[in-house]
């Protein structure tokens, strides 16, 4: 790492020049300073990783977690949400391994694939509403955000009438600078109370859903899940179970409509949907903050030894555009295969819900191509507004006509 003055240390996250354009700093840092010191909104410093191999190395290492709870770990912001706090959190150590085994069976590709018809039906229902209201429409608010929320509510057994309450709770848990500490605490208290109450109701009257399964496991008394872990798990499933897809649907469609040839290629060959989803995930410039890790012991990364106590941030979007890992990395290639992007992480802390997210994105794209082949943006892609202040990135809205 370079010796830098205090003033020379850049503020992170970086600003993208446009809603679908990568930050200019990514390519420069990959070439010149792959282990770069950057400053968080809190004022604390971290080491930013931008090269694909370095990011894979750290994310694959089971010793390191994204929970920044050590006394000398960096604080992301003065009002960071629960995603970086000790509560809610899944178990650690051996408990974490068992926790992932339980959820891994639930979120298996085979089981998630069985949900495909139900997800397609939900997507059709949402489009029915959007089409009936007439063009122009907002694909984010009318379709992209509601669909994954409907799906996760169905999966974990939350009442459909409660859907509207989840967006604010989710955003506060993923806060970077958008909400005050008071708002975050209030929202956390509300979601805690909600899940304790809902778990009690499920315990009295179990259903055919994931939360009922988890309650049965906790009540078996084998130590695999405590009551507090059960509540935390419910919250994590709610937030993580819809945020990636909810944001990604709008961004994926914006990428495809920004160059009409991409949309036309999919209309001509719908078999490209799966590889297109993977390529959209790879090229997402608004992934958000990145994935942090606290180094509990010294680690050599890219020829440099990082000391114990270092907080690193893996910039997923930059790693996914590394020319050393992907040929013609900046170009959207709908047929790209293989496509070993790191959008869902890798290793022992990789996203448990990635199979569900992939299926949701595939279903959303398939239904849009079938129902609205003439879909187009009503404004230039460069004028789309990006969501700010959260550790995940997305579009505020996606105005479309058909």
TrEMBL record:
<keyword id="KW-0560">Oxidoreductase</keyword>
<protein>
    <submittedName>
        <fullName>Cytochrome P450</fullName>
    </submittedName>
</protein>
<dbReference type="InterPro" id="IPR002397">
    <property type="entry name" value="Cyt_P450_B"/>
</dbReference>
<dbReference type="Pfam" id="PF00067">
    <property type="entry name" value="p450"/>
</dbReference>
<keyword id="KW-0479">Metal-binding</keyword>
<comment type="similarity">
    <text>Belongs to the cytochrome P450 family.</text>
</comment>
<dbReference type="InterPro" id="IPR017972">
    <property type="entry name" value="Cyt_P450_CS"/>
</dbReference>
<keyword id="KW-0349">Heme</keyword>
<keyword id="KW-0503">Monooxygenase</keyword>
<keyword id="KW-0408">Iron</keyword>
<dbReference type="InterPro" id="IPR001128">
    <property type="entry name" value="Cyt_P450"/>
</dbReference>
<feature type="region of interest" description="Disordered">
    <location>
        <begin position="69"/>
        <end position="96"/>
    </location>
</feature>
<dbReference type="InterPro" id="IPR036396">
    <property type="entry name" value="Cyt_P450_sf"/>
</dbReference>
<feature type="region of interest" description="Disordered">
    <location>
        <begin position="1"/>
        <end position="21"/>
    </location>
</feature>
